[in-house]
Amino acid sequence: MANLNEDELKVFVEAVRHYFQHQTGKQAEIRASYLADIGMPRYDYTGLITLSGKFRGCVYFSAPRLMVRELLIQLQEPDTREDNLLDAVGEVANTIAGNARRHFGNALDISVPVTIRGESEAIRSSVRARPFAILLRWQRHEAVVVVDIDSAN
């Protein structure tokens, strides 16, 4: 997977679409998907999944506070305190990575989500010079999924 092909990238785009449609009944609009050059977009809350096995790297979902809060409300979760906001971004990242695992099979091992509050500078491209970014809009809010994976070979 040194160079993700178009079909492999579509797995992640479709996982994003599926998550929002299935969980909220409201589709996310994919605004753009591209190879990121300098700095990857990050928002108030980030859920990050580390990948290992025959693949290595990470996938993360990052969204602004208002979007995550609205997501919880759509999921009929009235508790929008900090812990639940962090849990929500972790769950989105976990679901997206889980959908990718179904496509790539047992060769893709996924970690439990790590959640981060704030636009952490600690998140850097770990395996690709140019990670793949999927910009999305859901309920008037912008967010991003970043796919930074490569073959472990």
From TrEMBL:
| Keywords per UniProt | Chemotaxis
Does the keyword Thylakoid belong to this entry? Answer: no
Biological-process GO terms, alphabetical:
chemotaxis
Q: Which InterPro entries does the entry mention?
A: CheC-like_sf, CheX-like_dom
Q: Name one Pfam family in it.
A: CheX
Gene3D superfamilies for the chain: CheC-like
Q: Does the keyword Transport apply?
A: no
From which domain of life does this come? Bacteria
**Domain Chemotaxis phosphatase CheX-like, chain residue ranges per copy:** 45-134
Q: What is this protein called?
A: Chemotaxis phosphatase CheX-like domain-containing protein
